[in-house]
Amino acid sequence: MPVDPKQIRAKDKVVVDGIELTSEWNRMFDQRPVFDYDVDVLDKIASIPGAESIAWCYQCAQCVPVCPVNEVGDYGPRKIYRRLQFGIDLLTDDELWKCTTCMNCLRVCPKDVNMIDIMPAVREEAVMEGHVPAELQEVFENTFEYGNPLGESPRKRADWVKDAGVPVPIMKEKKEADILWFVECYPSYHPRGKETSVALAKVLNALGVDFAILGVEEKCSCDSQRLAGERGLFEEFAEENIKTFSKYKFNRILVTDPHALNAFKTEYPKLGGEYDVVHYTTFLAPMMDRLELKNRLNYKVTFHDPCYLGRHHGEFDAPRQIINSLPGVELVEMWRCRQNSFCCGGGGGGMWLDGFMADHVKERLSENRVREAVETGAEVLVVCCPYEISRFEDAVKSTGNEGKLIVKDIIELVVEAMGV
Amino acid sequence: MSDVLVFAEHLQGNFTDSTFELLGKGRELAAATGDHLVAALLGNGVDDMVHQLGAADKVVAVEHDQLAEFNPEAHTLALKAVVQAVNPAIILIPYTSMGMDLASALSADLDIPLASYVADVRVEDGKLVTVSQMYGGKVNVESEIAGNQKIVSVLAGAFPADAGKKEGSPAVEKLDPPAELSNLRVSFKQLIEPEGGDVDITQQDVLVSIGRGIQSEENIPMVEELAQKLGGAVSASRPIIDNKWLPKSRQVGKSGLKVKPKLYLALGISGAPEHIEGMKDAELIIAINSDPNAPIFEYAHYGVVGDLFDIVPVLKEKLG
Amino acid sequence: MNIIVPLRQVPDLVEDLEIDASGKDLDREWLKYKINEFDDHALEEALLLKEDVGGTVTAMALDGDDVDKLLFTAAAKGADKLIKVTGDFPQPLSSHAIARALASAIQGMDYQLILIGVQAVDELDGQVGVLLAHYLGVPHVSVVTGVQVTNGKAVVHKEYAGGVMGEFEVTLPAVLGIQAARQTPRYAPVSRVRMAMRKSTIEEVSASDTAAGGTPEIRKLFKPEKGAGAQMLDGSPEEVAEKIVSILKEKGIV
Q: Is the pLDDT at C225 greater than 80, yes or no?
């Protein structure tokens, strides 16, 4: 029950033993209620469908030390609850946009306070009310307009194929394939992403995989846009993608992007799209012995677990199997790995909030992670999520580690070992 | 009659560059058709201004209280009266804030065909041929205008102003102001000067100028740091100003300011004609844009096709 | 107060524009369209005015590809009424034709203001807003950045070069060519657009005037010449930055 606001304020002035005490110091000398918070705001947020579990927090604070954002700033799920107690409305609070939905808090939370549900639900409400950081709004608009967050021409989605040097069949012509490869946006448009797409195309060809891509028919899976609060956008494109999928015959969907994996595994079934989906590392790990690996690489590498592959979908081993199968490659682990892997900062919309976050953090998550990678003594930081390659490459430069560490997608190492 | 009529645009007592640009071009067109060049001068107390219009054979003026300052309705009525009196074959109106209110209005009221966004105009085999810069400068349209009368709405900066700058004493004919001027629906209230206090971008040696490619307001500090390292200031193209990310005083181009810095570093500016107009005279123009077809590359001395977010941080670093 | 906002779609300049086989038009088969950005500002200003003084905002567009999405997006942002103007329009559409069609559809409607984007990238034959005002016989002011309505009159700011502005008082009804709204056009959450698609209705009004005329006759389209301009600097960001710095040093700028 809300308490009379008069009760929660410190007295302007209290005289104790003839001494005048001002400000909050006088509270310890005067009677005050034990529970003196107005719970209206907390109730409002907890009543948003999906955000109910915020109310279960009992402030144990286990989430704070594992929260990557707290590592570079001042944040944590427990603090979100605390701010709500103070009556700070999360809908208009900058704190709303800091969470990358990396899920490390949920891993340790004894009360199942689920930020993966809470954040998108509250953000959706904020977006509907028009509270959305400008740079994120631009990404939403781009996605709606062009089908990709980069604002690139939808007609050029499959242009990378021209540089592949190996056949990359398009479903529209092929109609049927064992594997439908969902390439996703960054691997279709981003210069480094395109290089990894070419590498994966080479490996699929070498393995004789019967595959095809959607080409210009493919639309962003929009999982990160959904987590950033644009559920409508997600549903719009999910419906389109499901419709496109239904035109073709295939057995499995192969994804480059763990965020697409998450969309297809956890969200598409709710909209009637049920598929057998597999990340390319999971797909390739059991086939590595079929590849002819001519080159010895002699790299000391470390591996970054993507949040949406590892913690979210439990795949920790496949990437490591692939790395360990490469001749001459030595894998050293960072201390934050597997279940406790550190987020690159790109998930949950973070990919598009670097400018906004700059005011709130002392360094980017990707920079923090790159320092850790350098400390292992590895020369190569191996990744397998399209967000990471550009984030970490930027971070290598901004932390002054150029020449010490390079960033490579796991598939690029495979191709290097194959020598194709 | 098949004269060439130029709308002599002036603001705060001074003719704009467009006026002289059109007079210069109008002279050429009149020579080609063997007819007169007439300037339409609308205002109140214009006698002292006439000598600047020496490039024209004749000035036809309308004077009235309501014409003292530009008024879309009053100026349309008065210019219409001039057109009806002079009966010109070609009417040249600048594609400027004022001209935008006049050219289309005349076209609709007098049923005269109109070509807009015009960057070039010539007489070819007795036909009037125009080239319009359309689609943000990405495609040019060559057209010919039929009929006895045509209106050509010309981009500012399309022709040299010097050709039309000539002192003289052209004949002046004054028309009676149209009666409707005493019963207007649009009334002029005041001129508002831009707020002072901000950086004067016309005085800067170095401008780092940003366009749509900067993507969001949050990215502006990065560019400000670069400008600082170069000892200059940040300017911008129109979309940035329309989004209120920078004050109006920083706008380069048509509705902004004309700048001539030693270095104009254009970041994520595609180079629409309206922008080019404001910066094409810079001594050194370097453009970074991700679109290899961006028109800015035609005007820049050096161009980079690439992501400004990749290049600017490195550039900042190298500048120490 | 009732405000009408005519919306247009224009070719999206993100795409490479190609010229068709006739050489007289863009190759429209692959063309992607998007809202004229100035119309987006006009809609924003209309919605802000509605928030200021009450009334309705009617979004209106000529029938064509994707026009429903354009109108539903306007509804998602807060437009109260959606009108699609139908008719056998001359193609390719000219500013004069659009203005005539709009005027014939608007004639007789109850409105005080028409807010429209001051210009569009494809207006070869003048500005739709000004033409529309004259076909309707109402006053107009172009290049407007600020609108206030008091006592049945609009006070508007018109921009000139160099940041100077003229302030005008305009008797309503009137057409205002909007350069920029007071704030960045608002975002239409896709959920709202989808909701509008399900719940809003688009009223169809047929245009009684579909005449052509007033336009120049297009001879040909051509791409501006390349090559005269920039010397291109290639390489990695590192190399490019290096080259820029050496140019700046050479010119004595740093």
A: no
User: Looking at this protein, which amino acid is placed at residue A190?
Assistant: H
Closest CA to A103 of A115, A92, A88: A115
The size of the A-B interface in CB pairs under 8 A is 22
For C2-206, the fitting CATH number among 3.40.350.10, 3.40.50.1220, 3.40.50.10810, 3.40.50.620 is 3.40.50.620
User: If you average pLDDT over every residue of chain A, what do you get?
Assistant: 92
Q: What is the pLDDT of residues B133-153, one digit of tens each?
A: 999 888 999 999 988 999 999
Q: What is the mean pLDDT of residues A72-82?
A: 95
Does residue B238 contact residue B251 with C-beta atoms inside 8 Å?
yes
**Domain range holding B135?**
4-182
Task: Identify the architecture of domain A290-418 in CATH.
Answer: 3-Layer(aba) Sandwich (3.40)
Distance between CA B31 and CA B37 in Å, rounded?
A: 9
- In whole angstroms, what is the distance from residue B249 CA to residue A149 CA? 32
Which residues in chain B touch residue C228, judged by CB atoms under 8 angstroms apart?
298
Nearest by CB to C180, which of B242, B287, B295? Answer: B242
pLDDT greater than 70 at residue B316: yes
A3 has a pLDDT exceeding 70? no
Contact in structure between A193 and A386 (CB atoms under 8 Å): yes
All CATH 3.40.50.10700 domain ranges of chain A, comma separated, are 290-418
| B215 contacts A138? CB cut-off 8 A | yes
**Nearest residue of chain B to residue C185 (CA atoms):** B243
In a domain, B193, yes or no: no
Q: How many CB pairs under 8 A join B and C?
A: 284
The H or E element that residue A16 is part of is: strand A13-16
Structure pTM? Answer: 0.84
- pLDDT tens digit string along B91-110? 999 999 999 999 999 999 99
Q: pLDDT-derived band of residue A30, with 50, 70 and 90 as boundaries?
A: low
For residue A152, the chain C residues in CB contact (below 8 A) are 14
| CB hemisphere CA count around B53 (13 angstroms) | 33
Best to test chain A binding among B138, B212, B218 (most A CBs inside 10 Å): B218
Which residues on C lie below 8 Å from B203 (Cβ)? none
